[in-house]
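Title: [Solved] DedA family protein 3D structure

Original question kept below for reference.
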Amino acid sequence: MTFDFAASEAVGVGWLNTAGPLLVWVIVLSFVFIECALIVGLFLPGDSLLFAAGVVLASHGAHASAWLLSAAALVVAVVGNQVGYYIGQQTGVRFIARRGGKVLNRANLERAREFLDRKGFFAIVAARWIPWVRTLAPLIAGAARMDPRRFMFATAIGGVFWVPTLVLIGYYGAGLLDAIPWVKTVLVWLSIAFFVVGTGYGFYRYRQEMRRPVDEEPDNEYPAAA
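Solution (posted by the thread starter after getting help):
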């Protein structure tokens, strides 16, 4: 009895031919914006989403789409951070901390603030690779009245090293497995499963955090960021 790897691949990822790269674009651009602009993004699996997008596009052989998605998601990430900066500039961070919150607590907020205070410009660049800081950094930078041009430049540099890197690693990494179809099928399913489970768990965690009362302890004055 022989195992038909080609048939296995068709069963495993054939549905992606119906979903198509367009669905990948919609999901990726929506989630990247949310993660970079809104506090709910703190709980979303942004890194694994970008990697999974590359893997799924590789199953289509969508070479041009992978590069174009990288560029589009980069723009959306920068725009999202600008929105987060504006929100922080207008409202500060006083409504973020939750009394007894496991993630949205004053200790985490202060750690993120201290990180930006110490590193300034380079903290915004590095924040792209630190999941929870990635969402808090624009809000804190806005509240601290960091120079908007410096912020935009820093977040753009960070985005260049974050978005295309993960999408293209997923794309070309999966492409290397074309000679082993069943391994590629497993990788596609694992990537999608991790994203789906991570997203569901993230929204659950967000709802749990937001049910807690706001920590009304007054915020310390935010000095102007470097």
